[in-house]
Amino acid sequence: MSGELICKYNPQGAESEYKMPRYTEEFKEQIVRKMMPPNAMSVAELNREIGVSGATLYNWRNKYRKEGKAVPADPSNPERWSGENKLAVLIETAALNEQELSEYCRSKGLYVEQIVRWKEAAIAGNESGERLTKAERQVLKKERSKSRRLEKELNRKEKALAEIAALLVLKKKAQAVWGEEEDA
Length: 184
Prior knowledge:
Blueprint: E1 3-9, E2 15-22, H1 25-35, H2 43-50, H3 54-66, H4 83-93, H5 98-108, H6 112-124, H7 134-178
Antiparallel strand pairs: 1-2
Helix pairs in contact: 1-3, 4-6
């Protein structure tokens, strides 16, 4: 922290003076680095550890994301990162040689193979690891349930058809053995 700002209003809106902390850019960067792999601390953990509010930590993280630095929302699973974070990693690693790339991956908790896969997906223009939106997941769920329902109905009809075919075969065999039935 570098200094404090005196505010004339307290959080409840009443007029009073209290000191708001000011943080240096180095401090902010150090805290944001703790949110990145391999540390991958959550905002709640950092809040408890250093006492900076969650909203402030989220703002810092978002600021670094806008600057093009990879600060994932789910640092524990790089495959679930957003396309934006994967692209930021690709940009950061574009000019690195193999040794530097390996060192970068170790520092971020990634594998070289992941970055290669992300690059191939970006070149192909299709990010297969992208998560679906809530609406897309609901549509997919409805389509899957409709498909299961139709498959069940088709199986039921196939069984009924097989049963009718078996009854017709039995009827013909019975007629062949006992002769034609006379209708009264």
